[in-house]
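Methods: holo model generation. Sequences were used as deposited, without trimming of termini or removal of tags, and paired with ligand SMILES retrieved from the corresponding compound records. Each pair was processed once, and we did not select among multiple samples. The sequence and zinc ion SMILES for this entry were:
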Amino acid sequence: MKRRLATVSFVVAMLIIVAARTANAENIDLQALTQETQKMSQKNGDMTMAWWIPEEFWAASLAQNPQMTTSQIEEFLKVIRPYTIVVVVDGTMGAFGGITYKSEDFIRANTRLLDSQGKSYVPKNEAEVDVNTKNMLQMLKPVFVNMLGAMGQNMHFLLFSGKADNGKQIANAKDKGQFRIKLGEKEFKWRLPLDAILAAQNCSNCKQECKGSWSFCPWCGKKLSKETGRETIILPVKRALISGSEEGARS
Ligand SMILES: [Zn+2]
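and the model returned the structure below.
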């Protein structure tokens, strides 16, 4: 019982933070991460969004709440870690701007995850998902509805396998790779690693700042050294884990 209450309170706390959008430095990371992980398509009156929510997003959101202890964050991450989580909303815009949303059944039946080898995965059905993960997502739903209205109501969490057949993680925000989400004829592609979690690098030749994922400087063409790039930004959660011993003792 105590455990369940703790879960409820920190999920609620996290969503308040996600909704708040105050402009401090840590939130800028989170916004960049959100932008980079949300893909939209608006063609021929269709409006489709696929949002891959990587572990780093949850970690950064949770860590922005000073009341969250490191062990609570870790407990939360354990629940979502076995899956590749993608939120999908799909609708058609009518002549007067109203949106008709596709049903969850339709979205589930038509959405596939494709790993870097092109292997296709179907969303896991209810029986295949851990009960703790299901509870957690159920608690998130009303918050999305409050934040986004009808769109939130029609956002569906699809849980795919976290790992490919070869045991490798399908979507790892920190590693080189790619994966796709296909919904009917629409395709969304993520190239990894994500820039939002990589430290920027400076070109050794012209000194311009380049994104962490770039291999070549776009201004002078110099090959960027791998040692300076590819460094993962220490997300708030890691900072919390490093300095978290006293917090851990309190919980
Ligand atoms: Zn350069």
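Residues 2-196+244-250 form one domain.
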